[in-house]
Amino acid sequence: AKGAGKGQWRRYQSDLHTAVLERLELRAALDQAVKEQQFVLQYQPIVDLETGSPLGFEALVRWNHPTRGMIAPGHFIEVAEESGLIVPMGRMVLQQALNTVGRWQRSSAPGALRYISVNVSVRQFRTPGFVEEVRQLLRASGVEPGTLLLEITESLLLRNDEQVKADFDALRAMGVRLAIDDFGTGYSSLSYLQHMPIDVLKIDKSFIDDMLESKQQRAVVTAIVTLAQTLDLAVVAEGVEESAQALALRDMGCPYGQGYLFAKPLSERDAFAMIPKAAPF
Ligand code: C2E
Ligand code: CA
Ligand code: CA
Ligand code: CA
């Protein structure tokens, strides 16, 4: 009864204590990671569902911790976001991705790699000077702006923010393209699709997971594909793990897919090896 409640509270407090400590330690370690540039990128191909050939890659960050080894972003992105460390980390990610792609483009058939997709957090996007930074990193890497696709989430569009709209327009004017990541999971209305220069919708993995078993999930996927076609947007299905999913997607007119069926996120070297050595056209 009462005693148990008290014990529970103490346990709760000590769990909380541990959690807070862990977060502080994580934050300090992340701070160090930023200073020592401990982030590396892996590249996951995005393929043409008709031909299976990779058209581009999504850059995915990993923390190469000196003693704990490779750490997946699910363990640190949230703390990076809260602490603001996502801003310098995101800058390093963009720089690394562009420099790598610049090297790839100089040593593969022109046009064989259509794009590199880079995740940009809301906080990073909202940092003053972000667009200018993109411009400078593109220039320094020699990467054609049309090769860069920035993946943002709908949460950036929750408020009708004039600055965000202006930044989108500036990126578009530069030739950079924008994708909505995890499309379908946000709470925002779809009205932004009419006035924001969006190029690509990425259908969230959660819809793909159950699309073969659930009529409802399949209907959502079909609706997103139709929406994309109507608005003249490209659409990528995320988290494709089974060939039956890829076939169903292709049949409903979804042109692109990404997922373990095709490849897991790869090292820079393995990703480069996947780029077709002749241009697709
Ligand atoms: P996301 O942007 O939705 O990226 C897709 C995630 O799904 C990646 O996890 C990828 O490895 C995983 N994935 C791809 N295909 C499959 C599949 O077929 N099955 C399964 N089970 N998983 C698949 P990852 O690399 O752990 O990244 C997790 C999230 O961390 C990303 O989700 C993204 O939100 C965030 N993230 C990753 N890199 C960055 C970055 O450079 N900056 C920012 N701001 N966030 C990043
Ligand atoms: Ca993404
Ligand atoms: Ca996603
Ligand atoms: Ca996701």
Automatic annotation (TrEMBL):
Stretches assigned to coiled coil: none
Residue ranges annotated for the EAL domain, each copy included: 23-279
Signal peptide segment: none
Protein name: Uncharacterized protein
Section covered of the full-length record: 713 to 993 of 997
